[in-house]
Write a structure and sequence with these properties.
OB fold (Dihydrolipoamide Acetyltransferase, E2P), BirA Bifunctional Protein, domain 2, 5-stranded mixed β-barrel, binds 4-amino-1,4-dioxobutan-2-aminium adenosine-5'-monophosphate, binds magnesium ion
Length: 432
């Protein structure tokens, strides 16, 4: 019996006979030779079937194989610098598991609606495969970084009685007897309770925004990583944000080179992502817009167009601080030297990828927080527990949320967020 291995591990078996279990990605034939591109989830490899070196049954089988047929191939591993990945399999035997029906996704061009309807199958395509391997790596690298820095993973609930990011994008559920409940917009409020208990925590999970906007940067369900730190001020989480983001980029550059190659990502742009990131205030951002001939009213948040214009001025993500309070959420702390601005930050990725991080120092004073709840017309009752955090040993604290799909889309250099998550949920998309 040959040893069973994967395409990723195959370099350890040069000259040996191994079995790869996978699916047929593509094939071509030339006389008495069949070239099978086999993918096994970890990569693809070319398996060469020479008529006189396999049984007639195995050779005939190689002719019946359709795209995405499942099979086990046993063969001898050969190093070949011309082969993609550097290795080939000289086939000794083929075991067909299933001859697949006509696969809907062929190498020809398909429109996005068709591909999204077939997302469960589209995932197998080289580009999608590369993006989602990078997504997995980004999450792993983020956890690795935060764990190393002494953070505790602190899972926040998905069903919540409160709004965190404004009431206009809430998903309401009708289940809890006599009480309103919503799908979480952010784990932050719970992370704050966690920070008071553990010092440094992070949440990582799905979050929901019933956003009626239909843009390539908005998902209805997206994943967010939210570190929250007790005794941290705005400046402390600015450092954390730039360290974390540059760690993610470097880690992908180091460990996911093959995937970046498949995506034809310009790596030189990623290599220039090193701290310190430029820091500007909202007012300075307004100046940049003015220089570009765009007038933006003080007090309003930036939209996609403004974000793009500002971030185009920088090679690194730019950290914009001190937005007007009117543009931001209720929990942000007011700047001590200016009653109209918040101690907050948005981090905008370069090349028009938009906001990848939103964060702030939190209001830690009980009375001030009460007033902020009122000013935002939020009911006090469901926030009583949150107010308790200001009653019992309140301290300065800060945190931020990093959007996983925005970060992955930027690192991969893909236009649309929908490809940065296995099964995207958007205003007009719930299937599959
Ligand atoms: O700026 P946001 O709304 O901030 C918060 O939710 C804070 N409570 C986070 C915190 O301080 N702990 O969202 C944070 C990030 C954004 O910068 C963006 O990357 C991503 O989450 N994001 C979205 N990603 C995809 N689709 C959407 N509709 C998104 N809305 C926000
Ligand atoms: Mg934001």
């Amino acid at each position: 019996m040959a040893v069973i291995t994967t395409v990723e591990q195959i370099g350890e078996f040069v000259g040996e006979t191994v079995t790869i279990r996978g699916w047929l990605y593509n094939k071509r034939s030339s006389g008495k030779i069949r070239f099978l591109q086999i993918r096994d989830g970890t990569g693809t490899i070319q398996a060469v079937v020479v008529k006189k070196e396999v049984s007639p049954i195995a050779f005939a089988a190689s002719d019946t194989l359709t795209q995405e047929s499942s099979l086990e191939v046993t063969g001898t591993v050969r190093a070949d610098s011309r082969a993609p990945g550097g290795y080939e399999l000289m086939v000794r035997n083929i075991e067909v598991i299933q001859v697949a029906e006509d696969f809907p996704i062929t190498p020809k061009e398909h429109g996005p609606a068709f591909l999204l309807d077939n997302r469960h199958l589209w995932l197998r395509s080289a580009k999608q495969h590369a993006i989602l391997r990078i997504r997995s790596h980004v999450i792993q690298a983020a956890r690795e970084y935060l764990n190393r820095e002494g953070f505790i993973l602190f899972d926040a609930p998905i069903l919540t009685p409160t709004a965190c990011e404004g009431t206009s994008t809430l998903f309401e559920t009708d289940y809890f007897y006599g009480e309103r409940a919503y799908l979480s917009q952010s784990g932050q409020l719970y992370a704050e309770a966690g920070a008071m208990a553990f010092g440094k925590v992070y949440t990582l999970g799905p979050t929901f925004r019933a956003e009626k906007s239909k843009t390539r940067r908005h998902l209805t369900e997206f994943w967010m990583l939210e570190p929250e730190v007790a005794y941290a001020e705005l400046k402390d989480i600015l450092s954390l944000a730039e360290q974390l983001v540059s760690h993610l980029v470097l880690s992908v550059l180091t460990h996911r080179t093959e995937e970046l190659r498949v995506l034809e990502r310009d790596e030189s742009k990623l290599k220039s992502i090193v701290p310190p990131f430029p820091r500007i205030t909202y007012d300075e951002a307004l100046d940049i817009l003015r220089q570009q001939g765009v007038s933006h009213e003080w007090g309003n948040d930036f939209g996609t167009a403004e974000d793009t214009l500002i971030s185009q001025q920088f090679d690194c993500p730019v950290m914009i601080t001190h937005y007007p309070l009117t543009a931001k959420a209720f929990y942000m702390k007011t700047a001590p030297d200016n009653p109209d601005v918040a101690l907050c930050v948005d981090v905008l990725a370069p090349d028009g990828y938009g906001e990848i991080i939103g964060g702030s120092q939190r209001e830690d004073d009980y009375q001030t927080l009460l007033k902020k709840l009122e000013a935002h017309k939020l009911p006090r009752e469901p926030f009583e527990w949150y107010l308790d955090l200001r009653r019992y040993g309140t301290v300065p604290h800060s945190g931020f949320g990093l959007g996983i799909e925005r970060t992955v889309a930027w690192i991969c250099g893909i236009r649309h967020l929908r490809e940065a998550i296995p099964f995207p949920r958007m205003l007009q998309r719930i299937y599959p």
